[in-house]
From TrEMBL:
This is GDSL-like lipase/acylhydrolase family protein. It comes from Jejuia pallidilutea. The lineage of its organism: Bacteria, Pseudomonadati, Bacteroidota, Flavobacteriia, Flavobacteriales. GO terms for molecular function: hydrolase activity, acting on ester bonds.
Amino acid sequence: MKFKYISLFALLIGFLSCEEVESPIPEAEVLPELTSGSADFSNYVALGASFTSGFTDGALFKASQENSFPNILSQQFAKVGGGNFTQPLMNDNIGGLLIGGMANPQFQPRLFFNGAGPVRLPATPTTEALNNLSGSFNNMGVPGAKSFNLLFDGYGNPTNLALGLANPYFVRMASSPTATMLEDAMAQNPTFFTLSEIGGNDVLGYATSGGDGSNPITDSATFDGAFNALVSTLTSNGAKGVVTNVPYVTDLPFFTTVPNNALVLDAATAAQLTGVFQAVSGIFLQGAILQGVPPAQAQALAAQYAITFNEGPNRWIIDVPVTQTNPLGFRQMTEDELLVLTIDQDALALGYGTVALTPEVLQVLGLLQQGGTPTPEQAQLVIAAVNGIDDKDALDADELTEIKTATDAYNATIASVASSNESIALVDLNAILSEVASTGVDFDGFNLTANLVTGGAISLDGIHLNARGYAFMANKFLEAIDENFGSNFKASGNLAKANNYPTNYAPTLQ
């Protein structure tokens, strides 16, 4: 019986071996031929600020410029008649600038990741800002430019550098000391343009300085006038283009990396800090009553300073303006308030953001615990020991509201201009970066998030995109061009590929 089944099995194998078995071969997808639609890419000019220039890792350098989103776009435009795309390339991949042969702390070498965190490249910049480059440039991105700077006829004048009225990045590329960025762009007679992140720096400087007043937000009327003038001029010769709106800059890791509840305490330290603030509250109460403040009012004011701390994470103390309702000018941070990435974290570990407990302060606290009465000078020592985080290192609720209000006003103007002009496509950069910050976005199988170092979209400075982020941004421009001008970059497979663009540059890149 076993022999019978073995024979049948062998016969079956022999039969099958004589038959031709066809394996289905999937047909290759046939993509449509790339077309430009109604857009003319023969002379593409990019006008903008840091994102347009390719600014990455806290600096502008040759590799970052080569991976700027306008350069990525120009490579796709070249397939449908786009011309040469010139950029004011830096001398090296160090980044930073020399001004009159001298290094400037505002323009340092780029950041790289050393395994523990972002640090500056240990090298000296070689690009001299005062060495003006000859010729015209299709990439007119100038890091740090605000909306109205694009119209200022002294922005490229080297004699204005000492006055803070010129930008060294524009000084090295301006056609003349009196040329404006817009004039130099228009002198090239662009057939297509991008106008990106105009308005970003108008709020960013205020935000990165913690809203301390050193870099105020551009008022809406000034922004409106500048933006309308830019678009009106750029389209005056029939050119079409793409504009972006302004992201909520506070979504970026520069403002979200350092938690505002990173004051992690053990039980003993929490009890000690609670005791310090109870002492502050008591000292304030006694002083207010001595100054004639009604007891009930004095108690209500003093109660806000009796801050309690718990074992585990706690929120920091910040300085706020002195007011009648907050005479001492400090309070604990709320859940939504933010710390900047550049805050001195070593100082935080030594009492910055809580209390500077000197031996003299501890002596007064001991006196209070024993029921003693401190002298006015000793009482003042305890109050002065409260070491709240400075305005430059934090964004409080009022400052966050100012930033959002200005951004929303700018974006309303941008949306209105774009919707009323058939020659303009709009990229919603605000929504794109909000999605990156909240859930992340998919890019060729990579999930790009706003996490510093590991997120894949934002560079090491916590503000600007990295090369892969700029490639993703370029694709969003191409999709907007498809939708508005009838091209088919996406459908024809002519989008940037994630694997072609790095997330972090090597420290040895020269």
